[in-house]
Amino acid sequence: MPRTIIENIVIAQYKNQTFFEFCKYTTIRFFEIVYFEEGSGTIKINGKMVKYTPNSIFVFIPDDIYILNPETETSTVAVKFLKSFFRNTSSQNVNLPVNDWFRKIEEILNSESHELREMQFETEADRSHLVALVNMVATEYLNKQSFDIFIIQNSLSVILHLIARNIQFINTSDSVKEVKSSKIQQIINYIHSNIYNSELLSTKSLAEEFHMADNYISEYFKKHTDVSLKKYVINYKLKLVETRLKYTDLQYSEIAAELGFTDSSHLNKTFQSYKGTSLSAFRASLA
């Protein structure tokens, strides 16, 4: 059954179940990892039926609705980050790497393949590591007599890193993987990975990283994406701004500093120019 030690993170472990009730956390969940240790059946995800098998791992993002339909006895572990976890309202979680975890989940939310929920892995070693870490977290977290917050914290950090690293391999065909390994995709991946370090995203730095002339890399990027390099970086940053406005209570000045804008005024002007609305109006529309 679920138990909460870290406030607004819920671990649920079920053994040999043939029926699963609708999860009460669905409407307030930000991100969830579900590992199927044993059993088989189907999951209805946003109206679409998907099979699950032993040792499969699924990830769910905000507003996903899923219902489990076991065909055989099923054992699962689920790790649920609730939306309120990232709202900075709890002194209990003050020493956790909340911002780092948010950034890892954010990579998954903004991945082109995030709508395909079953995880696939670049190597079986990564799957084995992830399974071992999920089981370790569950064992520590659900132990009512003693638990080690250090183990839980660091295991969750590595779990999120492994998922973010492998998300590009989710349910993609070989032809898609070949495209994703192209030079332009490498540049896009590099931009996403270094979006918080503006110095690495300058034309000069990108040209050096990908062994191109300064005056050619922008032309190359525009040719293959139909958008300028500068505009792509700004658009991606503004996606991350939207995510923070939706799921955190960060001040505009904090968001601006994190994403390399001069100040909140600069951020607001850029947001309004690209999105057609102010930061405050966007946040108010979410209420």
UniProtKB/TrEMBL annotation:
InterPro entries registered for this protein in UniProt: AraC-bd, Homeodomain-like_sf, HTH-like, HTH_AraC
The name on file for this protein is Transcription regulator
Q: Which GO terms describe its molecular function?
A: DNA-binding transcription factor activity; sequence-specific DNA binding
Q: Which regions form coiled coils?
A: none
Q: Which species is listed as the source?
A: Patiriisocius marinistellae
Keyword list, A-Z: DNA-binding, Transcription, Transcription regulation
Domain HTH araC/xylS-type, which positions?
A: 185-285
